[in-house]
Amino acid sequence: MAAGNSVMDEIREQHKKMKDKSLKEKFQYFWEYYRVATLVTILAIVFIGNLVYTVVTAKDSAFYAVFVNGYTDMDTEEYMAGFDEYAQIDTKNYSTTLETNFTLNQDSADTYSVANLQKFAAQVAAQEVDVMIADPDTFQRYTDEGFLGGLNEFLSEETLSKYSDRLIYANIPDDDTEEDVPVGIEISDCALLQETQAYAGYDKVYFGIVVNTEHAENAEKFLEYIFQEH
Questions:
Q1: How far apart are CA 92 and CA 48, in angstroms?
Q2: Coil, helix or strand at residue 101
Q3: CA-to-CA distance for 133 and 51, rounded, in angstroms?
Q4: How confident is the model at residue 107, as a pLDDT?
Q5: Is the separation of the CB atoms in 141 and 106 below 8 Å?
Q6: Cβ-based neighbours of 176, under 8 Å, separated by 6 or more
Q7: Most buried one in 13, 45, 116, 143, CB count within 10 A?
């Protein structure tokens, strides 16, 4: 800006310079002086648009299950779409999730392992996870640490009776009792694991419900669902 000129004077001066320029020259001028501001503006608009879309279209979770230390390339979206229908989930307002291939290794101190341990702990604290399916050693560790609740608190007597010969018992920390209660169900032969071979190599696999779940009814329906052929 020339000394003593106001902003409006400078704008008028730039307009005069551009008045007789060709369209190509005007574009080149614009690109040279305004491209950074333009790109920043476009990126800001895209970011804000995506953020608004995400907030507006976000659904509350009706159920979340995780395979811990298993592996499968199954189509989880298709599988959970079937569960949505089975459990009569209002999919316009709620979503259900099955997260597979999630590794938890408390014996490793590498960055990936530590990050996963922290992520899982945060998800449980935020009441995002409802069901944990895991190998026996991992299941026992998380039971001992108080992550898993007594199934008698979440499942009906009819369901507990149905799986009575599969129940895994343990003493839950801080539950004001020294008695062992059912905390897991052995599910290695259920249709889901047989079809996906998610825990190939394990003789036993356990199903448990996270202690602070808010979706016990859907957890019970998911237990029923995984034993059905699809």
A1: 24
A2: strand
A3: 33
A4: 80
A5: yes
A6: none
A7: 143
Residue with tokens 């062992």: 180
Distance CA 59, CA 62 (A): 9
pLDDT tens-digit profile of 28-46?
A: 665 565 556 656 666 666 6
What's at 21, amino acid-wise? K
Q: Is the pTM of this model over 0.85?
A: no
What is each CA distance from 229 to 79, 104, 185, 191, 223, in whole angstroms? Answer: 11, 29, 19, 6, 13
Mapped onto helix, strand or coil, the DSSP state of residue 165 is helix
- Phi and psi based region of residue 96 (left: phi greater than 0; alpha: psi -120 to 50; beta: remaining): beta
Asked whether 66 and 131 are in contact (CB, 8 A), the reply is yes
At 38, list the tokens.
Answer: 């333009």
Integer CA distances (angstroms), 75 to 97, 107, 195, in order: 12, 30, 12
In whole angstroms, give the CA distance from residue 53 to residue 146: 37
Q: How far apart are CA 7 and CA 14, in angstroms?
A: 11
- State the alpha helices, DSSP H only, in the chain: 7-19, 23-57, 76-87, 111-125, 136-144, 157-162, 191-196, 216-226
CB 192 within 8 A of CB 226: yes
